[in-house]
Every structure is written in C-alpha cells, then in structure tokens.
Amino acid sequence: MSVSRSLLGLLEGQPQYGYTLRQRYDRWFAGGHPVASAQVYSSLRRLADAGLTEQVGVEPGGGPDRRLYGITGAGVEELERWLAEPELPDLRAARQVLFAKIVVALLTSRQPQRILERQRQTHMARMRQLREVRTAGEPIEQLDADFEMFHLEADLRWIDAAGPRIDRIRASLQEHPC
C-alpha cells in the first residue's frame, strides 16, 4: 500500500491538515490497522521535498501550529501516473513464508501436511470473519473483504494442489538428496 500516493489522492479535492488526512486515510485504507501519525507527516514531508505537495496555510493552535497541505500540479501528474500504472502481483511475502515452511518441512523430514492443514484452518477462520463483514459491513468494508476473501480462496486452491505433490517431492528428495 502506498501511503504517500493515497495521501495525494486524498489531497486532490482540497487542502487538508495532517490530522484530517490521517483520519481519512484510516477510514478508507487502513482496514483496521490505523496508520501512525508519524508516517503521515513523514510521507507529507517527502512529498513536499519531491514537489508533489506544498504547505498552503498555517493555523496557530494550543500546541504546534496546524499546517494545511495541498497537492501541486506535479502531485496531480504523479497521482495520474500512479493510478494509470497497473499493479504487478507481489506474492513474495506470502510465498516466502508458507512456501518456505513446506520446503523446510520436506527437507527436515517433518510433516508439511500438518502445516498445510493448520494454514487451511487459519484461512477458513478468517474467511468466516470476512463473510460477516461482507454481509453487515459498510460498502467500503465489503469491498475490502471481497479483495481479501478472493486472495484467501486462491491460497486455499494452492494448499489443495500442494497436498498431492508432497509425497512425490519427498520421494524425489530421497532419491536425490540436496
């Protein structure tokens, strides 16, 4: 998730304060994992350094001054570029963990089927939670739940496909140890 590019999108409509941007980010993008204020302000600072945002006002307050941020013309161009660029699937993080666990289990004569079954149970429990959101959540929460649900379904298909291959892989490792 690109926090900085999402902030550009939130700024396009009108200038906003960092606090307001954090609240709006959490509402639309956080999915239950709020963004840290420090991350919002450091992103705004980097965007300003790159000429994509600018400070358009300051309001004195009881504490630090409240800064009003706006998007620049270059920021709008960058937002357009980011929106037009398709996202390449990045499966490395999920692949690295589960795939690595299965390979290590095979290499160390452990039971990869147990790992797959525990992962299946975890996915199924998460899918039950998501079904509730898809039924009773706000439309934006439902959209987010759909996205996660479809990815979990793909993981489950992989788990199903991996199961029958394990015995063949184990036999191959016995014939040709690493």
Automatic annotation (TrEMBL):
Task: Using the record's annotation, list all stretches that form the Transcription regulator PadR N-terminal domain.
Answer: 7-80
Q: Can you say what this protein is called?
A: PadR family transcriptional regulator
Protein species of origin:
Dactylosporangium maewongense
